[in-house]
Amino acid sequence: MDPIYLYVSMFSWILVVLFISEYSRKKLKSGITEFVLGGRRLGGFISAMTYSATTFSSFMMVGLVGLTYSGGVAALGFEMTYLVFTVVFLIIFAPRFWVSGKIFGHITPLELLSERYSRKTGIVAAIICLVMLIPYMSIQMMGVGFLLEGMTNGSIPYIHGVYIVAFLSVVVTIWAGMRSVAFTDALQAALMLASAVILLFYVFYAFFGSPTCYFSTISVENPELLKITWDFNMYLGLTLPWAFFALTNPQVSQRMFITKDVKSLKKMILYFAIFGFIYTIISTLLGLSAANLIPGLANPDSAMPVLLTMVPKLLGLLVFIGIFAASVSTLGSILLTISSIGSRDIVRFINPNISERVEVFTTRVIILVFIFLCVVFASMRLDLIAVLASAASAGLLVMAPSIIGSFFWEKGTEESANISMIVGGLVVLLMYASDSYLLDLWPSVWGLITSTSLFISIGIISGSKDDGSKFICEIKKGMDKYNL
Amino acid sequence: MPSYRNTLKAKIVVSIMFFLSLLTFGLPYIILKDIASFTASYLYWTLITAIVIALGAFYVRKWGN
User: Fold this and answer.
1) Residue B18: which of A88, A215, A235 has the nearest Cβ?
2) Chain centroid offset of residue A296 CA
3) How far is CA A425 from the centre of its chain?
4) What is the interface pTM, i.e. ipTM, of the complex?
5) pTM of the predicted protein model
6) Has domain A3-380 been given CATH number 1.20.1730.10?
7) Interface test with A, best of B52, B58, B61, B62 (most A CBs within 10 A)
8) DSSP state letter for A294
């Protein structure tokens, strides 16, 4: 595809996003809660769309399509397992997070850990998040870089895609914080879904004749992709961190604080689940179609870029902008979360008397620092987006026992939370660094086993029922108040 | 009157959802692994997810009432 079309479409989209950001800025009030959480006044639809756009990044239309292309139906199982666990966790934990935000005024999910355990626990969790989210943020830029390079046969260099996504995400986030992120996310989520639906139906009719012919062709010509080809340990290792994603990834768990009321919280969960269900089916069906139409690609992640060169220009551009939007929205959301973690959980820990004005300024500065680090990481061009994303999630997975325990286990203590996260995180890092899979189990599995066993055993030894009862009691009272 | 989450109906719904979520891991590997058809693992994972979403919708409908 001629690079000029891609540049013009990206520029047009950037203008639309800037217009929305400016509109959001006019409605922005002062204060850190307003900047980071949109003042906890967002409605159900906007909350669901920002949750969806934050969760579903370029990974879906590039990484998941690639995984299905190479591994078949197991990729669907991987993503559907994520969705099932997320729905279960959201109905159990979203009301608890939301109530804790109302009662204690939490802005970041890690403040909840600080409240329940200690400030030091919040710091430990903050460091894990800051380290693990850098590769995850970089992946958003890499997705677009690969896509632009693939669609233009290298005429647009990979690094240009990285720079453009970085620029737009920073502008949206700094401009008006959560308000601009949420409103641009809503538009971006709609575009992501609409463009994916149109592409799928185009593929059905243009390349296979009809949806029925599509299913029969794949069944006859690519039957091996409908069998489970992944080894169970690989399936478990990749899926486990994603199953706990809703709790352990602060950019999504922070969204449990943003809705204005219970009705909006309900809508957020339901609309997100429906969005994810449809988007997952579309991405995997496109992956199977790519395996049939363009077999033998050396890099599975290039399946979608190559597929887009086979469809009409306008449709290719629309889908490209959808994927571009997905990357920008996910990156913008993580930037906002990570910067709020930096200012609330680390800077405020060092200087508790910091004013809200300085806090918002610090948040904006941290956004710039992290985008620089992510650009450096993305410029290294590490292969296989999906595995990299999963490695980052595996690092965050070690926080799961402490987060779950904070609401359900009184005996969980500062020591049990801190040691379980530190040791679990080190186990994951060392295993990924040394590429060792003890007993054939993936680092994520060992990370979860280590952190859970340490959290429970140290809690039993050193904890008492008094440790968490006050916090848990407050949450229960809050939930009773709202009949949750 | 107990809060909604403490009712027997709510506890049963959450238990079923939790049980179904565990089934997404093992069952396809035990009985559907080598069946090359859209009506095997593909349909299984899709149906389980649809059922869990429907149960989730059923569960949250009473929130705040």
Assistant:
1) A88
2) 30
3) 19
4) 0.96
5) 0.92
6) yes
7) B52
8) S
